[in-house]
Amino acid sequence: MAGRVCPHWVGYLLINPLRKLFENPNKILGPFVQEGMMVLEPGCGMGYFTLPLARMVGPTGRIVVVDIQPKMLSALRRRAQKAGLLDRIELRHIRDDGLGVKDLSGKVDFAVALHVVHEVPDQASFFTEVRHALKQGSKLLVVEPKGHVSQDRFAESVATAENVGFVSEVLSKKVGGRVALLVKKIN
Ligand SMILES: C[S@@+](CC[C@H](N)C(=O)[O-])C[C@H]1O[C@@H](n2cnc3c(N)ncnc32)[C@H](O)[C@@H]1O
User: Fold this and answer.
1) Could you report the per-residue pLDDT of 37-80, keeping only the tens digit for each?
2) What atom of ligand 1 comes closest to residue 143's alpha carbon?
3) Measured in angstroms, how far is the CA atom of residue 144 from the centroid of ligand 1?
4) What's the whole-model pTM score?
5) Which of 1, 5, 112 best tests ligand 1's pocket when mutated (most atoms within 8 Å of CB)?
6) Which domains does the chain have, with CATH numbers?
């Protein structure tokens, strides 16, 4: 069951620097991202996580972001340009009937779905497409907002991902909340 897509003006709230106090991109993503990686980020919004990701992958890496709202992407483009990171970020506007990442098949080193899965109408297709883009054995980090997503609903999303070929990895107890690390199962 999908929730309502967050209105574009909420995107401005989500890039508030104070968010770092309870959701620090470097702490959340740092353990998984290395220089030179290709990272896929569906549901990027205005890029709260995208700019730190672009810094982590360095000049030889690439972040492919996809979003259904052009206004989110145009704000992200402006912010990336200002930060001198635009050449590391590929922005894709998609309809809500697919992620439009077939061309990335087996090329992605790491994927993130940050506060987006609950907004996606067809989660099985979403996870299938992300899985297809990932290299064998590579990982998808899913983080959902506790305020909008109950523990049961989160468990349903994780089960959906497992049904399409992800294996859920156990995370340290220190990582609280609605967080799952999903590994692309080797066929
Ligand atoms: C709550 S915002 C989170 C943005 C960002 N990840 C963050 O944490 O700041 C969710 C974003 O996902 C996008 N979105 C919703 N459904 C989507 C879908 N089916 N495919 C791609 N993006 C989607 C929305 O347009 C919005 O930008």
Assistant:
1) 999 999 999 999 999 999 999 999 999 999 999 999 999 999 99
2) 8
3) 11
4) 0.95
5) 5
6) 10-184 (3.40.50.150)
